[in-house]
Specification:
InterPro entries: MetI-like, MetI-like_sf, Phosphate_PstA. It is found in: Cell inner membrane; Cell membrane. Its main location: membrane. The chain has 4 domains: 39 residues; 75 residues, no CATH class; 130 residues; 252 residues, MetI-like (MetI-like fold, Orthogonal Bundle), CATH 1.10.3720. Helix 2 crosses helix 16 and helix 12 runs antiparallel to helix 13. Strands 5, 6, 7, 8, 9 and 10 form a 6-stranded antiparallel β-sheet that branches. The radius of gyration is 31 Å and the shape is flat. The chain is 60% helix and 14% strand.
């Protein structure tokens, strides 16, 4: 036994067990997130049943089974269910009934013993709407200009035909409002600022001023005419969409008219085959990652959050990499090793332990108020008091996270430099290279993989940070992406959405927690995928550089 301990076998098994437990924990975490997030996009069958509690009227229920749990009799009574047998175990089901605009209850728990036989009617229709969430019921009529055009089974075929036509119109409306009208408004705003700059210039001659004002007014008239044309086209499309409506019937028999323009997509899950459900699943997931959020972020897509997260991380990497690498090179290769250098190195290491919210406060006070406010005074005075750079934006968020992750890059780069054998340095100097040539042509290329390792760690930490971003640029809903077709194309002064903050907002600030819970898991999975893609890109670069300089290090 003593020899067994001396050989270190227990420690080998202990380390192997720790690694195995860590791998199982990571795989389990990712699997849990993926299972709870991805199943949200599957078109679940709709169940219909009668619900009868003693002393209450029979209720007709129609909805999707969202969750189930088993309760003891006392626990069931605490939740309002009537149970006589104290030894009984009650299974209750959470049913997503939708129709929030009808009875204000989207999700409802029902006790299993009081539920009648479950049926799956094939004519049940589920509609995702732009407001009020999903509607679950029976399609009774299709109306055009207020007149009934189709009923019964023919109503679904006519509805599907009209919906496809209107979907193209709605997409065109969105393009006009989000892109074309936005571009025209940007040009008009730029002309307004040009006029204000002209009014603030006291050195301009009157003739030149009058000539420039006339040119500005002519250009403004042209853009305003273009704006009127776009508005007229949008209104025509809106009027065409408003001609169509459908009449839906709830489980209780109440009829509700829904405008066709409010329908995002309809489907009949009970009548769909497995292949149709798989195609629907792929389309729904794509709509999620490529669409824009709706209904307080509990519905729609997360494209702005994905775009904002990736852009902020890339800009952060552009800032942190050169500063971190140069600082590490100076501390390791040029600085005189003494008390001051050791103090700086200790300060850098301690900086990694500072709470991230402290960096957010610093970024707000220094970058946003001081630097951004100064930039506005110098270069954007005509826009004041509306701030341009004197508010949260992608640039200040990226710089704040660059400071947050700077110690990681410095420490990793120093470790890489320290591992370069002294013989390589001496050999380069012996061959006549200067210290600078030895450093930048021999040592730094060999330490590049370590620098990339530091960048990987920085990206992994920065992409998931939320607390500092809440102070320096992240918002619940961003009206515009940080990239557009207007010069300079990348607008780092704009506020942005972030996947981490989106998860926090949907999970803890949403007015409809049950509806937002699957989106929390799905968004968390997308965030993990974004981090993995960014890290794999950096790892591939590191491996390429490692192979390139492997022969030189040997």
């Amino acid at each position: 036994m003593r020899d067994w301990f001396k050989r270190g076998t227990p420690w080998i098994w202990l380390n192997a067990g720790a690694v195995a437990i860590s791998i199982v924990a990571v795989v389990g975490l990712i699997g849990h997130i993926a299972w709870n997030g991805l199943q949200h996009f599957w078109p679940t069958n709709v169940v219909a049943f009668e619900y009868a509690e003693p002393g209450r009227d029979v209720e007709q229920v129609l909805g999707e089974v969202d969750a189930a749990e088993t309760l003891t009799a006392p626990a069931a009574r605490e939740r309002g269910f009537q149970v006589e047998d104290d030894e009984a175990l009650i299974t209750r089901y959470r049913i997503k009934r939708g129709n929030r605009d009808v009875d204000n209850r989207d999700f409802v728990w029902y006790a299993g013993p009081n539920m009648g036989e479950w049926t799956y009617p094939e004519d049940v229709v589920v509609m995702e709407r732009r407001q009020w969430g999903d509607f679950i019921g029976y399609l009774r009529e299709v109306r055009v200009d207020g007149e009934t055009e189709a009923t019964g089974e023919a109503a679904w075929e006519r509805f599907d035909e009209i919906f496809r036509e209107n979907r193209d119109r709605i997409q065109e409306i969105g393009r006009i409002e989000r892109i074309e009208i936005g571009a025209v408004n940007a040009e008009i705003e730029e002309l307004r600022l040009s006029q204000r700059r002209l009014d603030m210039d006291d050195t301009l001659a009157e003739e030149d001023r009058a000539e420039q004002e006339a040119a500005i007014q002519e250009e403004r008239d042209r853009w305003e005419a273009e704006y009127e044309v776009l508005v007229e086209r949008r209104n025509e499309l809106l009027s065409e969409v408003a001609r169509f409506a459908v009449v839906m019937e709830t489980a209780s028999g109440e009829e509700v008219e829904i405008a066709m323009g409010d329908v995002v997509k309809p489907w009949r899950p009970n009548a769909m085959s497995v292949g149709e459900k798989m195609r629907f699943y792929v389309r729904d997931f794509w709509d999620f990652v490529s669409g824009y959020p709706r209904e307080a972020n509990t519905e729609g897509g997360i494209l702005p959050a994905i775009f904002g997260t990736v852009l902020m991380t890339i800009v952060m990497a552009i800032f942190v990499t050169p500063f971190g690498v140069l600082a590490a090179i100076y501390l390791r290769e040029y600085a005189k090793q003494g008390p001051l250098t050791r103090t700086i190195r200790i300060a850098v290491n301690n900086l990694a332990g500072v709470p991230s919210i402290v960096f957010g406060v610093f970024g707000l006070g220094f970058f946003v108020y001081f630097v951004g406010g100064g930039v506005d005074q110098l270069f954007y005075s005509e826009r004041l008091p509306a701030p341009t750079f004197g508010k949260g934006g992608v640039l200040w968020a990226s710089l704040t996270l660059a400071l947050l992750t700077l110690p990681v890059v410095i420490v990793a780069t120093e470790e890489g430099l320290s591992r370069i054998p002294g013989s390589i340095r001496h050999g380069a100097l012996a061959l006549g290279a200067t210290k600078s040539e030895m450093l930048w042509r021999t040592v730094v290329p060999l330490a590049t993989p370590a620098m990339i390792t530091g960048l990987i760690l920085a990206v992994a930490r920065a992409a998931g940070e939320v607390a500092p971003l809440m102070l320096v640029g992240v918002v619940k809903l961003a009206p515009q992406l940080p990239v557009s077709g207007d010069f300079p194309f990348v607008h780092l002064e704009r506020s942005f959405m972030h996947l981490g903050f989106h998860i926090f907002d949907v999970g803890f600030q949403s007015p409809n927690v049950e509806a937002g819970r699957p989106l929390v898991y799905a968004t968390a999975l997308i965030l993990l995928m974004v981090i993995v893609v960014l890290n794999l890109t950096a790892i591939s670069i590191r491996n390429y550089l490692r192979e390139r300089y492997k022969a030189q290090s040997d």
